[in-house]
């Protein structure tokens, strides 16, 4: 990976040096052919290189245009930058710097930039809300001893993967997305953060798969040792995503155009992530379909052995969450073309669906969990009884003191 990234930086540097040297060579030839500032008795501005683009010789009083540089983050290569040649045969100089100035402001779609800021703010807000809800849920799960069982243990790992994922996305949006210098420099830490994000995203879906698998084992297979099942869940939830992410990083890191700008751009290597996610979602739906059939046919309310209400609620929550998790990846195949009216709705909908997944998980698996409600009620009841006993003890003590009166 390090060798590939070093090669990428070197290739970019060589490409830029070639662009500069080609322009400087053009300037040198122009100086030989036209040593004066006139062409056929007309004044002109000489060929110039401003660090981003090469500006050809331009007649005085005219404006030169070049395509916006594609290597600058946020610039649209379909747009054009311009540079004015004044009547005296000199390039326009910026009043503040006194240096020749090229106008690249036209390379940016200001309205689109404002919309992207709105979308990024929506992502950030959703991730902050989800992270807060997930941390509260984890505190609840780890505080009450009555909640310590295999099903809740899986919830804890699912919530942990979501909390870490949301935190990583918050860092990504704060320090990478809005900083063009970071994207241009393409430092090691931002590439590592991208890989970590993909790993945590896969861990989310892997633990969601474990949720469905556990329900299947609990209601269909029945006789499975919890410690053995948890070892399998650890391997699936944390180990398998690591292997898949390593393969993704290796494939993507070997392709030059996929290793630029903190790996933010789309890549063919993304299939290494999308396919496992879709397979896990389909498998989870299969497990839950079987579990639902068992609940409806064998463990219904009127049967001799009805399923516990906690398990029923867990099945219902999982059935809601799995399609919710799958919507984002299904939408990838329906992404509208850029600048089309449908893109606005798509981006806003995707931002809400993706960033609030952790919040939805918290509501369905914790805040609406009957076991959690029972733990709070039991704790409240114990506190109430403790307070009653203390009041009774204090009353008894006062009465005994009032009787012990000596004359």
UniProtKB/TrEMBL annotation:
One family name in Pfam for this protein: HRM
Any one Gene Ontology molecular-function term assigned to this protein's record: G protein-coupled peptide receptor activity
Gene3D superfamilies according to UniProt: GPCR, family 2, extracellular hormone receptor domain, Rhodopsin 7-helix transmembrane proteins
Similarity-based family: Belongs to the G-protein coupled receptor 2 family.
G-protein coupled receptors family 2 profile domain mapped to chain residues: 22-111, 119-369
Record's keyword annotation contains Zinc-finger: no
Membrane-related topology note: Multi-pass membrane protein
Subcellular location as annotated: Cell membrane
Principal location listed in the UniProt entry: membrane
InterPro entries: GPCR_2 (IPR050332), GPCR_2-like_7TM (IPR017981), GPCR_2_extracell_dom_sf (IPR036445), GPCR_2_extracellular_dom (IPR001879), GPCR_2_secretin-like (IPR000832), GPCR_2_secretin-like_CS (IPR017983)
GO CC annotation terms, alphabetical: plasma membrane
Record keywords: Cell membrane, G-protein coupled receptor, Glycoprotein, Membrane, Receptor, Transducer, Transmembrane, Transmembrane helix
Gene Ontology biological process: adenylate cyclase-modulating G protein-coupled receptor signaling pathway; cell surface receptor signaling pathway
Superkingdom of origin organism: Eukaryota
Protein's name in the database: Calcitonin receptor
Membrane spanning residue stretches: 122-144, 156-175, 205-224, 231-251, 271-296, 317-336, 348-370
């Amino acid at each position: 990976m390090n060798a590939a990234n070093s090669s990428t930086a070197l290739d970019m540097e060589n490409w830029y040096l070639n662009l500069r040297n080609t322009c400087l060579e053009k300037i040198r030839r122009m100086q030989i052919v036209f040593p004066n500032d006139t062409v056929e008795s007309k004044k002109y501005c000489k060929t110039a290189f401003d660090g981003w683009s090469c500006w050809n010789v331009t007649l005085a009083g005219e404006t030169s245009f070049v395509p916006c540089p594609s290597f600058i983050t946020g610039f649209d290569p379909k747009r054009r930058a311009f540079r004015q040649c004044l009547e005296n045969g000199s390039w326009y100089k910026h009043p503040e710097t006194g240096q020749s100035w090229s106008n690249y402001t036209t390379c940016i779609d200001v309205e689109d930039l404002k919309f992207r800021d709105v979308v990024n703010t929506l992502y950030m807000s959703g991730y902050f809300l989800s992270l807060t809800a997930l941390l509260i849920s984890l505190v609840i799960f780890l505080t009450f001893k009555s909640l310590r069982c295999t099903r809740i243990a899986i919830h804890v790992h699912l919530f942990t993967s979501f909390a870490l994922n949301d935190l990583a996305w918050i860092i990504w949006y704060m320090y990478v997305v809005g900083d063009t210098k970071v994207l241009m420099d393409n430092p090691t830490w931002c590439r590592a953060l991208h890989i970590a994000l993909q790993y945590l995203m896969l861990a989310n879906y892997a633990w969601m798969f474990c949720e469905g698998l556990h329900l299947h084992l609990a209601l269909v297979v029945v006789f499975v040792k919890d410690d053995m099942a948890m070892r399998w869940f650890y391997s699936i939830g944390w180990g398998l995503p690591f292997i898949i992410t390593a393969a993704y990083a290796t494939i993507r890191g070997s392709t030059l155009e996929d290793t630029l700008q903190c790996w933010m751009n789309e890549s063919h290597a993304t299939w290494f992530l999308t396919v496992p996610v879709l397979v896990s979602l389909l498998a989870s739906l299969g497990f839950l379909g079987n579990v639902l059939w068992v609940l409806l046919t064998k463990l219904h309310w009127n049967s001799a052995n009805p399923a516990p209400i906690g398990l029923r609620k867990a099945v219902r929550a999982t059935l809601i969450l799995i399609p919710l998790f799958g919507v984002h990846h299904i939408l990838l195949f329906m992404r509208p073309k850029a600048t089309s009216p449908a893109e606005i709705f798509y981006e806003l909908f995707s931002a809400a669906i993706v960033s609030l997944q952790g919040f939805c998980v918290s509501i369905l698996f914790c805040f609406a969990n009957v076991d959690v409600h029972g733990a709070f009620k039991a704790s409240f009841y114990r506190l109430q009884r403790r307070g009653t006993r203390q009041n009774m003890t204090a009353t008894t003590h006062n009465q005994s003191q009032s009787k012990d009166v000596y004359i």
